[in-house]
Amino acid sequence: MDKFRMLFQHFQSSSESVMNGVCLLLAAVTVKLYSSFDFNCPCLARYNALYGLGLLLTPPLALFLCGLLANRQSVVMVEEWRRPSGQRRKDPGVIRYMCSSVLQRALAAPLVWILLALLDGKCFVCAFSSNVDPEKFLDFANMTPSQVQLFLAKVPCKEDELVRDSPARKAVSRYLRCLSQAIGWSITLVLIIVAFLARCLRPCFDQTVFLQHRYWSNYVDLEQKLFDETCCEHARDFAHRCVLHFFASMQSEMRARGLRRDAASRDPKTPEVPEPPEGLDGGREKAHLRAVCSQEQVDHLLSTWYSSKPPLDLMASSGLWGGGLSHRAPMVAPSTRLSQHTDV
Amino acid sequence: TMDKFRMIFQFLQSNQESFMNGICGIMALASAQMYSAFDFNCPCLPGYNAAYSAGILLAPPLVLFLLGLVMNNNVSMLAEEWKRPPGRRAKDPAVLRYMFCSMAQRALIAPIIWVAVTLLDGKCFLCAFCTAVPVTVLGNGSLAPGLPPPELARLLARVPCPEIYDGDWLLAREVAVRYLRCISQALGWSFVLLTTLLAFIVRSVRPCFTQAAFLKSKYWSHYIDIERKLFDETCTEHARAFAKVCIQQFFEAMNHDLELGHAHGALAATPASSAVPATTKGAEEEKEKLRGITDQGTMNRLLTSWHKCKPPLRLGHEEPLMGNGWAAGGPRLPRKEVATYVSKV
After folding, report:
1. Which of residues 167-186 of A touch B (CB under 8 A)?
2. Which segment of the chain is annotated as a signal peptide (chain B) (predicted)?
3. For B233-291, what is each residue's pLDDT tens digit?
4. Cα separation of A118 and B59, whole Å?
5. Contact check, Cβ <8 Å, B79/A174
6. Tell me, what DSSP letter sits at residue A155?
7. pTM above threshold 0.80
8. CB contact under 8 A, A288 and B52
9. Which of A114, A210, B48, B64 is a plausible cystine mate for B110, CB 3.0–4.6 Å?
10. How much helix, strand and coil, in percent to the nearest 5, is found in chain B?
11. Is the complex ipTM more than 0.85?
């Protein structure tokens, strides 16, 4: 069980593999959604195009937004973008990297929908049946233009009385479906060529900067997760102490009342602050959580975390030479230490 | 416990080829499934038939081939290995060729399956060549010359579509369909035979030539792949430790602030003793994982150096990486003796 837990943790530690999993899940959901959707062309002159194009474009938009919502990293990216610089400079390259990776993953499900719709053909036939040129098909020679228009509008509906079992309808429907499939395959081909070239050619440009951006974007993500975890731990500790404090104060109040019955009055309003038992929550390890013990202090900590993230320099931060956070002006560190761009 | 985890991970990675074989098998099945789910829809119009059929025969295989390459993580690894500066590790073109060949071979399987299934099924071939059927031989040969060519083409183009075919007086539809399908299946089987033969020859004849060089290339290509994965994993571990220590120090700094505040101006304890982080086992482990890299600039330099100047393939020499040579980084004289794996064959 240990091994499984470690494996699971490993797959979760890399935010990229989690996002890939979510992206694939969303694509599978899209396929299922498309196959279970009951397409229902209105077969009326002006409504066809509206329905067909609406169905081709609206669900992808919704799926794109879903993809952005489901991806934790989009929130992390926006946070990193909007935070004040504080003691840690912002690197626009990292933000761009995170943005592009979020967008790429969010685009997968909408593309799956559009491609399925085009390869299936129903949307295209519904939307563009009225725009077909009747000259291509000899069956329309004997009909007036208005009759032709009416006929064409009803092409997507196989069961309609006007067009049932009509070879002309089948010919038009075939033609449109073949066009739709050709467009679908062309789009697929273009997309896959672009993806392939992007993957191949990326190492040709700025590979070092890319490695840095990837590392630091992963770092930002991990840091956010760890901070949330630490805050949870702190909240738990805080709650524990609060509850213990309450019980102890109750106890001492009752003791005080009991004593008052026999002896002189003792002020029940000075509860003793109990020491939380040492062994209970790992003593010294939680030392860094202990001092923050009131609502204002917690609020102050959280707002400091947002407005002034600590610098990415552990040696400078750990030395408590010049006093604490409030005294720490942006360190006059040698410029090479805090520089974000390499000198190489 | 970390050792056990590492053992499992290495086992999964050592079978990189079998993993890729699995992916390739899945894609082959997906290709066959895609074909059966795809609704072939011949336009049955004279000009469009050939274009549609050619498209269906050629575009999906290209898509599948590129998809097979894109999904293979080794593509970006190959490009990276190709474009990196030599630094202290010479590049071996034989390794690059091996990596490319093995990727391309695996990516070719799904397209071949698609083409084979398409030809064996026959609809595509029927759609493409229905206008080229020899009417004089198969149908009422006497009536054919009387028709103008466009009319003949229009008639014959409708052969694949049973519900709109209206040329029964000239040529029975079934006859044409059977004729074309039989040719298509013959072509399909020949294609399958040819590719299988080719694969067999390549596989069995290769050990006769340059087997030693082949083994070397295989080893070093696996090595490069595993090295890259381990580097990524180490970077992630480092980022995690960095974040943990950073956050811990943030809380400690808060502590310190608050303690100073509480002391009300009285001499606070000297910084060395106040809020000194307890040297517990957990904190020590985290600091170890940092491996001495504790700020952003150093990390960036490390990443740059990894790309620009990969370490030589010679363990045991503790070269000073972060000393004075750091700023110089790239242009050191490439020492020939470290590139011991360059194949001499």
Report:
1. 167, 170-171, 174-175, 177-178, 181-182, 185-186
2. none
3. 888 888 888 888 888 888 888 777 777 776 544 444 434 333 344 445 666 777 777 77
4. 15
5. no
6. T
7. no
8. no
9. B64
10. 70, 0, 30
11. no
